[in-house]
Write a structure and sequence with these properties.
Order of helices and strands: HHEEEEEEEH
Number of helices: 3
Shape: elongated
Region (Disordered): 1-42, 171-196
Strand content: 25-35%
Number of strands: 7
Largest sheet: 7 strands, antiparallel
Helix content: 10-25%
Radius of gyration: 33 Å
Biased composition (Polar residues): 22-33, 182-196
């Protein structure tokens, strides 16, 4: 039987010599020990002051202001509850989606999206639509079909902040809103005279 060559024993973590161990100073240990019943022995201390030499451009603030402007302009368009609404093909809609983040289990509200409805499933739970672009130009909303428009399926239950921009549903909802506003303005002037 061959004898195995003996390897030098591994040094245990606590048995390494001080020259090979990295030194970590946590402050003046004798003073910390005398002061500190309430302080932990691993209290972090910065060795020297620092200054900021660069910052990162945060585009979220720019997008946030554009998103607020877009929301303000979209408030003038008719709306409906997406979960109970039957979309009609050729409806152009602006919407946000509300989904659940699988990492943090927190709700996530998307930016504004735009699309033209192509079809809706029989149960009314999924909407097939082509991708459109949505932008603000000269203080008004501009929307048109994207250059490389793709079909996408969106669950009706995920659609939030729905706005109708164009199409048959836009016309019917706009007319219903106009009729409702007209009845509110003339509602106080009508009088009913009882017959004898």
């Amino acid at each position: 039987m061959a004898k195995l060559a003996s390897l030098p024993p591994r040094a245990a973590c606590g048995n390494q010599d001080k020259a090979s161990r990295p030194s970590v100073s946590l402050g003046n240990g004798s003073q910390d020990a005398s002061k500190g019943a309430g302080k932990s022995k691993y209290e972090e201390r910065w060795k020297r002051p620092y200054k900021v030499v660069a910052t990162v451009l945060d585009k979220r603030s720019e997008q946030s202001s554009m998103n607020d402007s877009l929301t303000a302009l979209l408030n003038s368009y008719p709306t409906a509850a997406a979960a109970s609404f039957r979309f009609v093909p050729t409806d152009v809609i602006a919407y946000k989606t509300l989904t659940l983040c699988v990492d943090t289990w927190q709700p996530v509200l998307s930016e504004w999206r735009c699309g033209q409805v192509q079809s809706m499933d029989v149960q009314g739970t999924a909407v097939e639509m082509s991708t459109w672009t949505l932008a603000i130009t000269d203080g008004s909303i501009v929307f048109h079909e994207a250059i490389h428009s793709e079909q996408q399926s969106v669950q009706a239950s995920e659609i939030n902040d729905l706005r109708f921009l164009s199409g048959p549903s836009y016309s019917s909802l706009r007319n219903a809103d106009d009729e409702q506003n007209a009845s509110k303005t003339t509602g106080g002037t009508e009088q009913v005279v009882p017959q004898k």
